Amino acid sequence: MQHFASDNYAPVHPEVMAAIAAANDGAAVSYGDDPVSARLQDRATEVFGERARIFPVLNGTGANVISLMASAPRWGAVIASDVAHIHTDENGAPERVGSLKVLAVPSVAGRIGPDAVDRYAGDIGNVQRAQPAVLSLTQVTELGTVYSVADLKLLADAAHAAGLRVHVDGSRLANAAATLGVGLREITTDVGVDVVSLGAAKNGGMLGEAVVVLTDDDAGSGDAAGPTGAVPYLRKATMQLASKTRFVSAQLLALLGEPGTPTSGTSTSGAAGTADGAPLWLRNAVHSNSMAARLRSGIEAAGLLEPGTGVRVTYPTEANVVFATLPRAAADRAREHARFYDWAPGESADRVEVRWMCAWDTTASDVDDFVRAIAAAL
Ligand SMILES: Cc1ncc(COP(=O)(O)O)c(C=O)c1O
């Protein structure tokens, strides 16, 4: 099937499949007390730092809800961008399941700044107001942009200064690290992030993601009195604990790499397979990012960037997705070649904003054929 619809349309990467098959070796203790999950924990400390504790879960919404519940009291609130997945695309799960109000703040190209914290800091201590307890950032943002290391540090410092914890929805954390040419630790632990929802499904996994608690020594201790000691209980209570957790752990391990292997690698070369010895998360992210860059430049090189009549790219292409507006009729014709989603209304009634997303399995010829299809549709 031809598509530029979503990175979760992609098949499972063969190395992930092989890891699942390798984990299918006789009986193992259930609920995460198995050798594969133990190796994953060892690997998480190598990748994210000594204090990191990793909890495999079933999906990204679950990872977000558990992360937020673990970081806020029942009367708490979460500050996030107005386009945050937790705000717009989780059917209110943080509110319904987590009892946490999401305080949405205006974003610019998907990003928010430290003023997001200032906006609600005055509510702290006011019993009339849901208590701001967490700043949640999405990295890569929902609009395909990436927070720089410096921006993340500023945001985390502002949140901590106001007494808030910092959560990163890292559904596409790998793509952000690949863009920035840094490891996963540099954009999480090292800038002061407290808890991460670590994506896998969009990066070549089958199903499953993880909550990674970075800064709390109680994490996973089973001491539910501590804020993040609660994660094991929350994972069960929110129905996110797989009895055969080893098969989720195997996927995460395939992506992060086995203990003792490089945690990062040359990531900015822009082509799959050129990141020597790099872990799979990075190879897949470098590749999907490079396909979006090819799509973006292909559209330009084909002369399709024509405001009003042709394509108008709406956000910077910083990771694995291109957002653009074009005439609705042309979008529908291009869709006969490859499936993709409408994202928002366009500048006028006859134009629409679309999202063209690339994945680990998108090929250069998929992209080039799609550029030709858009040209023909226009
Ligand atoms: C930014 C972001 N966060 C979280 C999720 C949630 O993932 P899931 O569909 O696995 O619940 C998605 C899925 O599209 C996403 O794009």
- Residue share in helix: 25-40%
Structural class category: alpha/beta
Helix-strand sequence = HHEHEHHEHEHEHEEHHHEEHEEH
Strand fraction equals 15-25%
- List all distinct small molecules, including ions and cofactors, that are bound in this structure: pyridoxal-5'-phosphate
Give the integer mean of the pLDDT values. 94
What separation lies between the terminal Cα atoms? 22 Å
Poorly predicted segments? 267-274
At CATH level 3, the topology of the largest domain is Aspartate Aminotransferase, domain 2
Describe the main β-sheet briefly: 7 strands, mixed
In CATH's first tier, which class of the largest domain applies? Alpha Beta
Number of helices, counting only DSSP H or I runs of 4 residues or more: 13
Let me know the CATH homologous superfamily of the largest domain. Type I PLP-dependent aspartate aminotransferase-like (Major domain)
List the helices and strands and how they pair.
Elements: H1 14-23, H2 35-48, E1 53-57, H3 60-71, E2 76-81, H4 85-88, H5 93-96, E3 101-105, H6 115-121, E4 131-138, H7 149-161, E5 165-170, H8 173-180, E6 195-198, E7 209-213, H9 231-237, H10 245-256, H11 280-301, E8 312-313, E9 321-327, H12 328-334, E10 341-345, E11 351-357, H13 364-377
Parallel strand pairs: 2-3, 2-4, 4-5, 5-6
Antiparallel strand pairs: 1-7, 6-7, 8-9, 9-11, 10-11
